[in-house]
Amino acid sequence: MFIHEISKRAHLTRKAIEYYIQQGLIAPAVMENGYRKFTASDLQTLNRISALRKLDISVEDIQKVLNDSTNETLQRVLLKKELSYQRDLKKKEILGKLLSGNQLVDLEEEILALEQSKTILERLLESFPGYYGRFITMHFARFLDEPIRTPEQIEAYRTVVSFLDNLDELEIPEELTELLEEHTSNTGIEDIESMQRSTEAAYDHPETFLEENRDMLQSYIDYKKSDEYQQSAAGKLMQLMRDFQRSSGYNDVFLPAMKVLSPKYSAYYEKIEYANQKLLETFPEVIEMYKNESTMD
Q: Which pTM value belongs to this model?
């Protein structure tokens, strides 16, 4: 079919179709007379592009979606929109304070915190691939809603941004990438939030968690120590992540700076350390298993 026909069938203007061609979203065949010939597959692609544009997804992200055989790109787009929605709620709250008589100068800290949080979260999502990037972004988002008031916090903010800007790309072998995609492509925001709530509940009451889950944890530790796990794709992926955290400065630069930047994160990290201490007291064999390794949180 020619452009006038596909324009009608896709309910798009010729100008829009030509723009999508220029952007490389579709590539119709060009005949000897110079006319473009579109296929049923092109029509299907244009219908998908049109639907995604109506959802306010950028052309850049649409291109990634079209080239992605998994749901990962859409998951990242959804997370971006969720973070944007949370920022809009905060902006609405600040505007409400202005209408209630607060002076703009008194709200500058909150406005600046909003922008600084956006800067860090966008860099986190860009710096880490796939599900790991989505998880780590959501993990730290809850700790980045506090104003930066002290010189130490200002310096910590600069350290975090500089670290993320200069972070080398985490290269994951193809076979491990396939494993990650297979198990996480359908893991959405609600799933990650549920995992975070469960983890935080364990950190809040580590003794209770360890007592109630002793048998399960012992079986898990035994499996993690086994050659079967160490040689598995999951074991290799976990080791790759830990090696990256150590070598990249994630453990030595990023996390210490985050603790200075966010008092809430510092308090959370103290709970992690206490929970880890209780874990080691209950299961001493974990000391050897995780020797020289650090937590991801």
A: 0.74
